[in-house]
Amino acid sequence: DRYIQDELKLLSIIANELAIGMSRKRLMDEITVKNIELENEKKRTDDANETLKRFLATFSHELRAPLNAIVGFSEILTADLPALPPEKVNDFMRNINESGKHLQGLINDILDLSKIEAGKMELHLDAYPVSYFVESVERVMQAALQQKNAKLVFDVSPEIEQFVVDQTRFKQILVNLVSNAIKYSNKDGIVTVAVHRFVNEIEVEVRDQGLGIKPEDLAKLFHAFQQGKNARGSAEGTGLGLVISKRLVELHGGRIWVESEWGKGSSFRFRIPMVVAGEVIDSPDQLVHA
Hints:
Blueprint: H1 2-80, H2 86-117, E1 125-129, H3 130-140, H4 142-148, E2 151-156, E3 162-166, H5 167-183, E4 190-198, E5 201-207, H6 215-218, H7 240-251, E6 255-260, E7 266-273, E8 275-276, E9 279-280
Parallel strand pairs: 2-4
Antiparallel strand pairs: 1-3, 4-5, 5-7, 6-7, 8-9
């Protein structure tokens, strides 16, 4: 009996030590997990701070030029209006108007991105003819095309007659992509918008013949305030247009990507599903106006 009791005591001691050891291991595992979580949280905070700094630096820079133009030209008009020739007045007013529109566009981009990130942007889907978007984009881009003496070509597959999209937001995607393509096109270049069916999706490609994008800069695209000076040629910008386009494509249930070779232009493509009320569309004939 004494032998059995001694064995039981020994086993009890061993069991207690094992339990303590396991508790310590569990505690160490929990501490390790907490440390990893803290490190991840710190990284997220550092990334957020870096993004905020980049936002403030870039946005203040982007605001300064149009604000200076508005203030400068309006001061001249206020002080010397009677002495200025009519053509000068028209020129100053045109500069003020263009700068004001540029400011409005920047602020709208910030508001749109904030709304998307907060999950407060809702799409209102309906069926719209492709011709509506072709005409709208051509009209909006007319001045930019003339400035570059560039040509905008639409290559639309005959089987694609309509899009089921949010009218305003889908046009915003197209205008953003086409505007970028024109901006980075060579003089007298051609920007092509191709629309084709890919299985049960619609693929839209916006292709330019410009300078292209360096491989190391491809990863910076679709990130706010990372367009920078070397992303595509020498142009600067906030990069918000591509970020917003990406989010809007994703809200439509699609995805967007870019293919580019330095010196040979770029191709931005996105695909969205052909859906109405959650059902896959087999043919454009199924699309009807609400």
